[in-house]
Amino acid sequence: MKVLVATSETQGQRGSDLFFAEEGELVTFVPECEHELHDIDDSCGCMRTMIGLDTTGLTTTMKVLDLDMTRDVLEDKLRHRYEVSGWAAFMTTEALDEQLEEDMRALTEIAKQFSPGAVIEKRGDEFEVRELH
Ligand SMILES: [Zn+2]
To answer: Which of 25, 42, 52, 124 shows the greatest Cβ crowding within 10 Å of its Cβ?
Structure first.
């Protein structure tokens, strides 16, 4: 299945780039704060970053890969992240399941729009391909 992983490729193309994740780890969404309060490239970074599922390091550059893994593996990793981050403790089982379903749908939806190997960036709600130089 197509998934999004962290990559340091094309880091530096934007002055606001950051990369604290590990190359190749699966990523998911970062909760965004109030959009109207700030700009995509500001110091907060919530509108341009994704978070590594293993390291919880942030990255502004992601890569689409077609990996030999099942949806269950990704879902388990997402669930684990909610558990270790403490969020799961504040959610009912139903709410967590719903959240996981939504995350899975959004992640796979984004990944399937791009070709494997594409390096992409998040600009608010939009995901765009970066040119490889
Ligand atoms: Zn923010």
So the answer is: 52
CA pair distance 75, 8, nearest whole angstrom:
24
| Cα 126 to averaged position of ligand 1 atoms, centre (Å) | 16
In the chain, where are the structural domains located? 2-129
Tell me how far the alpha carbon of residue 68 lies from the centroid of ligand 1, in angstroms: 34
Q: How far is the CA of 118 from the centre of ligand 1 (A)?
A: 26
User: How many residues are given for the chain?
Assistant: 133
d(CA 106, CA 41): 23
- The string of pLDDT tens digits covering residues 80-130 is 999 999 999 999 999 999 999 999 999 999 999 999 999 999 999 999 999
Q: Phi and psi of 51, rounded to 5°?
A: -120, 135
How much distance in Å is there from the Cα of 42 to the middle of ligand 1? 8
Half-sphere exposure of 130 (CA within 13 A, CB side): 22
